[in-house]
Amino acid sequence: MHELSLAEDMLDMIIQRSKEDGFERVSKVWLEVGKLSHVEAEAMEFCFDAVMAGSLVEGAVLEIIASEGMGQCLHCKTTSRIEYLYDPCTYCGKFGLDITQGDQVRIKSLEVH
Amino acid sequence: MCTTCGCGSSHKHEHEHEHSHDQARIIEVEQNIFSKNNRYAALNRATLLRYKIAAFNLVSSPGSGKTSLLTQTIKALQTKQTISVIEGDQQTDNDAKRVRDAGAQAIQINTGKGCHLDAHAVGHALGQLPLKSSNFVFIENVGNLVCPAAFDLGEYAKVVTLSVTEGDDKPLKYPDMFHAADLMIINKIDLLPYVDFNTDRCISYAKQVNPKINVIQLSATKQNNFTEWVDWLKYGVKA
Q: What is the ipTM of this complex?
């Protein structure tokens, strides 16, 4: 369950940001989770509350925005929407796609006070 | 009247909590949550480059024969090369002892409840190794085909080991790891006559997930085809 350590890293990033932007509390976190990323949304939701307890993010709502997986075919160069890393190109049917979207996990924005 | 929240008149912001009703604002962040790990990985990569060391991150499920592969590799390389090893396990320093017995310097990291090594822990371990005299650093990750896929440690290449006593469809069951790896080693090939493992199928699944992946089939304990692996380490170019 690597989502636990990633939630801890998220908290560190938010604390750092609070020093730069001068906020004292966070009430909502928008997190983009790519469908092809290494993060399982449910596992992240599970870890989030536990990690944020006792911090300036305690009680914050975690809003997960799922982003679609997209890949460019190495053969025909077209871009397909894919569900899994082992999906073939939708157009030519060959395997081997360069992932162009959906492998990222990003804190998009924060609602702060 | 305060223009922020509309309270009172001639309101001055001198007291510590000027807005008890807590005005919210939204700030844009757009930050990758792996960025902290990736920053440490970049530092490790720079350190390794400075000392001209090739570092390999060895990943697999438990029991694939990573430590045997490593001890045999140390024996094959050590006449001309100096090898350092970072061992990652949840508990015990058994593996570090095994690689020290084989002739390498080793640092053990116990991750406790953690399921993977991260670049920060590896950076500390690198600081304790004799990098000046090392040619190779092997990082034996925690036996786990899921979590270690996500964490760049600053290595030159990621090597995933799969043994023929496992399922040949593991590249599809754990695609993240095979997608991230530069080389797949199919280990324990001396046992092929006794197991139901289809090597061609396994390789085609791995290529489906990662067309650029290199493949070497060997037996670490019986030394079958071992020179191909040693040559890959010495001269091999990343996919």
A: 0.88
